Amino acid sequence: MTVAVRSFAKINLGLYIGGARADGYHDLRTVYQTIALHDVIRVSVGRGSGIEIVCTDARVPLDSSNTCYRMAERVMDELGAKGRVNVEIEKRLPVRGGLGAASSNAVATLVALERALKRKLSAPVRLRIAAEVGSDLPLFLVGGTTLGVGRGEEVYPLPDFPSWPCVLALPPIGVSTPQAYRDWDSLQAAAALTGAAPSATITVLSRSIAAAFGEPHSSGVFSEAVNARADRAEDPLLALVRTGIENDFERVVFPQYPFLGEIKSILTGTPGTEDAAVYAGLSGSGSALFGLYPTSAAAQTALVRLERHGVTGLVTSTLPRSDYWRTMMVADAE
C-alpha cells in the first residue's frame, strides 16, 4: 500500500536571532505559519530492507543526507519495524528557499510511514525524533501558527490566524543559511567593537507575541481592523504586525542580495492603499519572500507587480491548524 501525504510549506512571521550557543546553534524566537503550498510524499513498505529515495529533481539528494531518509531510518528503528521503505518526493516547493521544504518532507514521511505500517508513535516520541533530524521539523507536527524557540525546535501552538491570501516570490537565488548566521555574528562583533550594545532583538518577539495575543479589545490594537474589515476585527496577525515584527536575517541577507530587498518593496506595495500588503518579509534566511494581503484581489495585484519585474511568484494562502491536518492526507495519488 502506498500512502500519499501533502507536505506543506511554512513562512516566518518575524525571526529574531540571539547569540551563538555552545552547541554551535543560535537561540531564536520566531512565529512559524504553515501555508497551503506543498510537495507530495508517497511512502510504501515492501519486502527486503533499506531505504530508497526517489525524486526527479536533481537538487534533491537521494542518499542518507536526505531528511526523509534520516526520518524513515529513525521511525523504523523506533518501532522495531522491518521492510524496505520507498519514499517518493514530488517536488513543488523550491529547494533552499526558506520555506522549510526538506523539514516538511521529513515529517510527511513520518506520518505516511506510520500509516503504511499501521502503527503510531506517541506524540512526545514524534517530537523528539523530529528535533533530532532538524531544527524546524517539530513545527510541522503542530501546524498553523506556532511559536518556535531554542534553535527553533521547541514549539508551542499559538491561537490560529484565519486564512490570509499570500503571495510567494521565488527568485532564482540560493541563500546559504550557515553563511547568513556567520554574517549575523560578524555584524554583532562589529557592533561590539564600536562600543554598541549587543543586539537584544530576541526579546522583541516575546513582547510582540504578548501584545498580539494579550487583551486586544482593551488595548484597542484592532480599532483600524474593525473599520477596515469587520471579520478581521479579532485577528491577532494585525496586532502582531502592529508591534513592528521583523526578520533579523534581512539585515545581513539584503546587503548581500539587494534584489531581495527590492522584491520585498514590490510585495509591500504602497502603504495605505487597498492593494498594500498587511505584512511582507523574507521567510527564514530566504531566498523566498512573501506578502500577506487583505483580499484575494490585492494578492493578485501583487503577483502582477512581481511578474512585471520579472520575478516568479505564486498565490496561495496561510493554512490554519485545523485545515493543515484535515487536508494532509491525499485520498488518491495526485
Considering the chains and any ligands shown, give keywords for the structure.
334 residues, alpha+beta, Ribosomal Protein S5, domain 2, Alpha-Beta Plaits, seven-stranded mixed sheet, four-stranded antiparallel sheet, 12 helices, 37% helix, 24% strand
CATH class of the largest domain: Alpha Beta
- In N-to-C order, the SSE pattern is EEEHEHHEEEHHHHHHHEEHEHE
Beta-strand residue percentage: 15-25%
**Relative helix content:** 25-40%
- Total DSSP E strands: 11
Give the helix/strand class. alpha+beta
CATH topology of the largest domain, anyone?
Ribosomal Protein S5, domain 2
User: What is the makeup of the main sheet?
Assistant: 7 strands, mixed
CATH architecture of the largest domain: 2-Layer Sandwich
N- to C-terminal distance: 15 Å
Secondary-structure blueprint:
Elements: E1 3-20, E2 26-46, E3 51-54, H1 67-79, E4 84-90, H2 101-117, H3 123-133, E5 145-150, E6 154-157, E7 165-169, H4 177-193, H5 202-212, H6 216-219, H7 223-228, H8 236-242, H9 250-256, H10 258-268, E8 279-282, E9 289-292, H11 296-308, E10 313-317, H12 321-326, E11 329-330
Parallel strand pairs: 3-4
Antiparallel strand pairs: 1-2, 1-11, 2-4, 2-5, 5-6, 7-9, 7-10, 8-9
